Amino acid sequence: MTRLTLPPGFLWGAATAAYQIEGAWEEEGKGPSIWDEFTHTGGKISDGDTGDVACDHYHRYREDVALMKSLGLQAYRFSISWPRVLPEGKGRVNEAGVDFYSRLVDELLRAGITPAVTLYHWDLPAALDRLGGWPAPEMAEYFADYAELVFRRLGDRVGLWITINEPQVICSHGYVRGDHAPGHQSLAEGLRAGHTLLVGHGMAVQRLRGLRPGAKVGLAVDLNPMVAASESEADQAAARRGHALANERFLDPIYRGDYPPLMRDVLGRLVPEFTEDQRQVVQEPIDFLGINHYSRWLVQHDAEQPRPQVAEGAASLPVTAMGWEIYPPGLRQMLCWARERYSPRVVYVTENGAAFDEEPEESGRVEDGNRRAYLRDYLVEAHGAIAAGVPLRGYFVWSLLDNFEWAWGFSKRFGIVRVDYETQQRTVKQSGEWYARVARTNALETE
Ligand code: FCB
């Protein structure tokens, strides 16, 4: 057996997002989000699931914090529901909503757990969608105002901030493919949305700098190795384009001041231009880079359209219940690539994990050896990235709890803790026990 030790102070955490766990979708003054509307308009989500109740975390947050404490977790990444604190997205504050997050933060601190707060994990206030949503440039200002409100109310107790979660997914799924809220299908809108997200991110970073100079702020991007689905030159070129359009698209503007040249070559005048002001705002230095990572993408050329396509069903490696290939070296590759290209000061893995179709045994135990193996193998690669010089300071497993997996509803389970949605009972899975040991010992044991 080999024992791999992580650097002292390495932060072991778990991640969730508001819409996926909170429930209480219209309680105590919360306004509707685009996800409330999307799930309530039939036919969009597997089995017609909604996040109306989800894991009922809004009412059970104390129990959930106690659970994290019992697992020895040192950090918890959660998101704030924008319409819970600003029901119309701007203007009137819902004090009950702010109070919920304030109590959650206090509870975490009492348990010795560092809160890492994501400001935007996809639940845009529906009222702002009616004003044009992310494709509308004004959203950047509204986002910065919302961020400032949260910084003012929680900033005395929260040291780690993530502005936006996975801007690439927001654009491609929400505005181009339309399988996520708000369900639009327009490449031009997707590109405009991405632009506003970048400006909003930069403005929020600036507001925080002004208010809380000591706070640490970054964003979480999803990075995936792009692998050509075949040897053909057309597919190889598609993989290179995919890399620019997905991996470099948001980080190039933040760290280098403009979209990657290949993106302009492929999409031409659809790609927005940065004004000089915007360029500066977007480049406001961040303290850390959050990387979400699950799999690699097999990419193929599609003569019909310039955007490279993910080759569905072409997997050649074992897959998770999402159909995502299990390819642990991809994590090290993307961490090392990000370090090479952008030299981030600090890096966190802000999400990594796997869905599997496990069922509890009669005793109630969940023997999810496949998830444990996935986490172990990916963590070995994270360890390798540190050895290669990546300033990786922490890891957040996705997810603490089984939860509402967007278009897949409750059919996909990512938790290290099982949730019985009938009774809301939480059961730590075998992978959760394993992860708790890793967190406590700061070491990985590999067979
Ligand atoms: C990521 C999302 C997260 C979760 C995982 C499986 O893209 O950020 O909310 O759904 O995928």
Can you walk through the features of this model?
The chain is of the alpha/beta class. It is built from 15 helices and 15 strands. The chain has helices spanning 18-21, 34-40, 57-70, 82-85, 95-110, 126-130, 139-154, 167-177, 187-211, 233-256, 261-267, 276-282, 329-342, 369-387, 430-441; strands spanning 2-5, 11-15, 75-79, 114-120, 160-165, 216-222, 226-228, 288-292, 297-300, 309-310, 347-351, 392-398, 417-420, 425-428, 443-446. α8 (167-177) runs antiparallel to α9 and α14 runs parallel beside α15 (430-441). The mean pLDDT is 97. The structure holds beta-D-fucopyranose (FCB). Residues 17, 20, 165-166, 169, 222, 292, 351, 398, 405-406, 414 line the site of beta-D-fucopyranose.
Beta-strand residue fraction = 15-25%
Global structural class:
alpha/beta
User: Ends: how far apart?
Assistant: 5 Å
Largest sheet: 8 strands, parallel, barrel
Number of helices, where a helix is a run of at least 4 consecutive DSSP H or I residues? 15
Cofactors, ions and other ligands in the entry = beta-D-fucopyranose
Trace the largest sheet across and list its strands.
2-3-4-5-6-8-11-12
Which consecutive residue ranges, at least 5 long each, have pLDDT under 50?
none
Mean pLDDT: 97
Could you say which overall geometry the principal axes of the C-alpha atoms support?
globular
Estimated radius of gyration: 21 Å
Q: Give the ordered list of helices and strands.
A: EEHHHEHHEHHEHHEEHHHEEEHEHEEEHE
The strand count comes to 15
> What is the oligomeric state here?
single chain
Determine the fraction of residues in helical runs and give it as a percent range.
40-55%
